[in-house]
Amino acid sequence: MDLHLLRVLVELHRHGTMRAVAKATGYGTSTVSVQLATLEKQVGTPLLERVGRTVRFTPAGRRLVEHAEGILSAVEAARADIGPCGEPSGLLRIAGSASIMSTDLIPVATALRASHPALRLEMQEREPGEVAELLDADEVDLGFVYDYSLVPRFTPNGTTMRLICTVPILLAVPKGKFGPVETLDDVRELLAGEPWIGNSRGADDTELVEFLCGMAGFAPTVAHGADSLNLALDFVAADLGVALVPAFVGPCDGVELRELPTGLFERRMFAVTRPGRHAWPAVRLVTAAVEARVQ
């Protein structure tokens, strides 16, 4: 079987329509249709069936997609394995959240610019869901995403994931305003009437707040949204609300960071690639550098 035809089949499974496959691959819709018909002839059994103006996979088609994903992943890994002893070089496209960029990726990129001048990094700030979309569209090679242990968001969905680290979640409150927050009863008695700060670009931070407050027996009021940890801390310092933040945030004037009365709340960071690309020398280098930095 032609690997190129298998790749077209996998792209159809990922994108759902021939028009979307054509857009992703650069081929015309009619070319995509011919390629899929050729693959059906090669395997000797129908892979697709028409439903109105769309197509859906036959059972044989779904099974071949599973095999094709494994085959293409193995091919990617084999290509990487042929020349991994060479110096990581060329272009590596990376996407990650603003906090991961500032805290980890920019320092790593600065160091690698000196130690590996043949490697060129292109980085863009994206939320986890956007990283998944860019990986699926093959617009980035490596993504760094986060979610929360009690609000899991990111699933493999055809990608290769590596857990980089877990970080405790802390409670950020205005300095000097509250006494100890040692139990869930303290959370309810001290914070039930306070406004909270969530994330303006995603619901996971708000859901984490709701989870904590629900454990304490009340429903929170999420009054503000910020897509920046520094901005969230500015809200807290101005006594405009309280927030949940990862423990790696630095000191901030006017803010006290308190441990939560339960150890269940953690932020998890993952490195994510398309299948097979985790073995690319440049991917391995950057992933290892980020992992070493956060340990």
TrEMBL record:
Pfam family, any one: LysR_substrate
Highest taxon of source: Bacteria
Residue stretches making up the HTH lysR-type domain: 1-58
Presence of keyword Zinc: no
MF (Gene Ontology): DNA binding; DNA-binding transcription factor activity
InterPro entries, per database record: LysR_HTH_N, LysR_subst-bd, WH-like_DNA-bd_sf, WH_DNA-bd_sf
Keywords, sorted A to Z: DNA-binding, Transcription, Transcription regulation
UniProt entry tagged with the keyword Transcription regulation: yes
This protein's GO CC annotations: protein-DNA complex
Similarity comment: Belongs to the LysR transcriptional regulatory family.
Protein name, per record: DNA-binding transcriptional LysR family regulator
Lineage start: Bacteria, Bacillati, Actinomycetota, Actinomycetes, Micromonosporales
